[in-house]
Design a protein that fits this description.
mainly alpha, 3 helices
Length: 127
């Protein structure tokens, strides 16, 4: 016979709601960190392609071609990626993840304020 009261069932249901809320919060936290990491990767890729850009401009100039449009497109893409990276906020401290004062820290893997890592340290899975 099951002698559980309505309060016991409510406690069980509230625990499952709490667990669901915790899992949803963890998923949002991980998604936020993933978005921060992607913003950093996009800017790094743009930065790493700078030598390719310089060689392309040099070749176009040697051939007597106009490089204005090419230059503005590259600068625009770089600016968009930099703004995207700068506006990302840490899910823990809600400060800018890569900017402490005025300088953008491109090489860090941690929040410059609270040291939250981009990669979560908890590697447990919910299978």
């Amino acid at each position: 016979m099951n002698h559980s009261t309505g309060k016991d069932q409510e406690a069980g249901n509230s625990m499952s709601l709490k667990e669901k809320a915790a899992r949803a919060n963890t998923a949002l936290w991980q998604q936020s960190l993933r978005n921060i990491s992607r913003a950093r990767t996009r800017l790094l890729v743009c930065f790493w392609t700078l030598p390719v850009y310089v060689v392309a401009v040099w070749m176009l100039l040697n051939n007597g071609r106009n490089v204005d449009a090419f230059m503005w497109i590259y600068i625009g893409v770089y600016a968009l990626f930099a703004i995207d990276m700068v506006r990302r906020r840490c899910p823990r401290c809600k400060q800018q993840f890569f900017v402490k004062t005025i300088l953008l820290n491109l090489v860090t893997h941690n929040c410059v304020h609270c040291q939250q890592a981009l990669k979560p340290t908890d590697t447990s899975s919910d299978n």
